[in-house]
Amino acid sequence: MKNFTLSIIVPVYNEEKNIDPFLNRILEVIKKYQYEIIFVNDGSTDRTEEVIKTYCQKNKNIKLISFTRNFGHQMALFAGYKFSKGEAVVSIDADLQDPPELIDEMIEKWFKGKKIVYAKRQQRQGESFFKLITARIFYKLINFLSDVPIPQEVGDFRLLDKEVVDYLNNLQEKPEFLRGLVAWPGFETDYIYFKRDKRFSGKTHYSLSKMINLALNGITSFSIKPLRLSTYFGFLVSLLAILIVVFKSVQHFVFHQGDWLPGWASLFFSIVFLGGVQLIMIGIIGEYLGKIFKEIQNRPNFLIKEKINL
Ligand code: UDP
Ligand code: MG
Q1: Which of 6, 157, 196, 253 has its CA 20 to 30 A from that of 165?
Q2: 266 and 129 in a common domain
Q3: Claim to verify: residue 188 and residue 234 sit in the same structural domain
Q4: How far is the CA of 276 from the centre of ligand 1 (A)?
Q5: By residue range, what is the domain housing residue 276?
């Protein structure tokens, strides 16, 4: 099966200095295949778009989708999938943290019939201790909460068979957490392992708040367990309250011991504690309500300003 097209999807947001080295490196790997490279410019404010356009003029297999503004990394990937034509579709970052040389290995696994080939990070370089720890906690948490196992230490560097891409393109929901959506149907999966390099140029665009948003979106898109846990916890706390009342009443009326009045510290504590618990639970409900709100509004996931070679 040598006769296939390989689509490469590259979301880019302010990566002007990375485009040249990225293309040099990836073309070296993929020029032996029939390929297309789709850059999805996610509202860059630097020269990213111009740089890509000069390449598009020289090479028709290099294509560009430009968003009207920044819609986020997940939406950029999603747009790339929508327009990809290949039988195998690889998504990769433009900052050379994902080594393009691995694509050959991914294709080999795909030849063997795997529908999804993830590149799994064995080691990460140049990323803060904080990022590593939060990433680990996030994957533990999401796997505890979610009904489908979501692979750990796996980013958005992966190969998808056309079948998987078609499934993604036919989804009716907002694709806020592609990693989960890719794992959900249970297609045959394999892994290759790599060391994640440092960013070639520039800084990460994933701020703490963006990471928390992604995490919350991931959890609430794949599980209603937080709601159920709230219910359980509510029952537990109510039970505790009843037990305390029973205990105190028996102490007072049967054994004529204990004081009713000096207990203000425990009273104060329980009011504050319950207030906190209630706020958290309202927040959890709110997360889901917000999701329903967004689905009902049904606004487009992204808007395209310009397409080149597509
Ligand atoms: N990116 C994007 N839109 C955004 C943020 C990032 O298209 O709003 C792109 C970015 O240009 C890069 C990839 O997504 O190609 C991964 O982003 P980044 O390297 O900042 O994330 P990290 O590797 O630190 O997780
Ligand atoms: Mg990066």
Answers
A1: 196
A2: no
A3: no
A4: 35
A5: 225-297
Contact between residue 39 and residue 52 where contact means Cβ atoms under 8 Å apart: yes
Sequence length of the chain is: 310
pLDDT tens for each residue of the chain, 310 residues long: 568 999 999 999 999 999 999 999 999 999 999 999 999 999 999 999 999 999 999 999 999 999 999 999 999 999 999 999 999 999 999 999 999 999 999 999 999 999 999 999 887 777 778 878 888 888 888 888 887 888 888 889 999 999 999 999 999 999 988 999 999 999 999 999 998 888 888 888 888 888 888 888 888 888 888 888 888 888 888 888 788 888 888 888 888 887 666 676 678 778 888 888 888 888 888 889 988 998 999 999 999 999 999 9
Answer yes or no: is the C-beta of 156 below 6 A from any ligand 1 atom: no
Specify if 138 maps to a domain. Answer: yes
Do residues 117 and 51 touch, judged by C-beta distance below 8 A?
no
What distance in angstroms lies between residue 251's CA and the mean position of ligand 1's atoms?
62
Distance 42 CA to ligand 1 centre (A): 9
Kindly state whether residues 242 and 167 are assigned to the same domain.
no
Ligand 1: which residue has its CA nearest to atom 16?
A: 93
Contact between 175 and 221 (Cβ < 8 Å): no
Residue bearing the CA closest to ligand 1, atom 3: 73
Ligand 1 and 93: CB distance under 6 A: yes
CA-77 nearest atom, ligand 1: 7
For residue 113, the domain's CATH number is: 3.90.550.10
Number of domains in the chain: 2
220 belongs to a structural domain: no
Which residue is closest in CA terms to ligand 1's atom 13? Answer: 93
Question: Which atom of ligand 1 has the smallest separation from the CA of 95?
Answer: 15
| Torsion sign, CA atoms 119, 133, 78, 284 | positive
